[in-house]
Amino acid sequence: MTQLVTRDEMQVIEAYTIDEAGLSADVLTERAAMAAMNVLAAGRFDLSKVLVLAGLGNNGADGVALARLLHQAKIPVTLQFVGNVNRANQAVKDQLKAAMACGVQRAEKSDFKEPSLIIDAIFGTGLHDDLPEGLQKMLKAANHIDNTVVALDIPTGINADTGDMHGAALKAKATVAFGYPKAGVNRSTGKKMSGRVITQDIGLITPTDFTFSIK
Fold first, then answer.
1. Looking at the whole model, is its pTM more than 0.90?
2. Which residues does residue 52 pair with via DSSP β-bridges, in sequence order?
3. Which end of the chain has less Cβ packing within 10 Å, N or C?
């Protein structure tokens, strides 16, 4: 496994990339979606019916962008938000506008037995509290179904630093780690729930004098 990073370290690297190196957050979102698309195309996943579960933060924005790319590649995909999209951050709303302009199909509810592949873009590295009870129940129910799940950056419900589970977590068969794998995918419950971790370059620029805490 390549260099592991903590949540705080990832935030520093992302901030440097955006604020100092000049790559916009929108560019990183697009690069993340393209990286995930490349993994799906090369990984022998069944793409006959893809469901993207998107949250309201930056991880959700990555998922919405991926749904658009899948749709534009003529792959059957449905986008479902977990939470009220009116409360989503601006990155999600911007990506949703583009997805809707392309004709991406949305669903309010889904039968998790139907998709051939589920993309987990609900919560990323920012999670530090237990998941809402309703979401915990949904994830536990989904884990009882033999779905193939691919998580973006880290499985929902897993702490990015410790790998501990915040009430429940969605078990992935593969996790696409953007830039660097997060420490939590190799620790505690996170190691079991992350499946195969596939690290993808999304153009992050790490300061030359940056010191990683994990050796």
1. yes
2. 79, 119
3. C
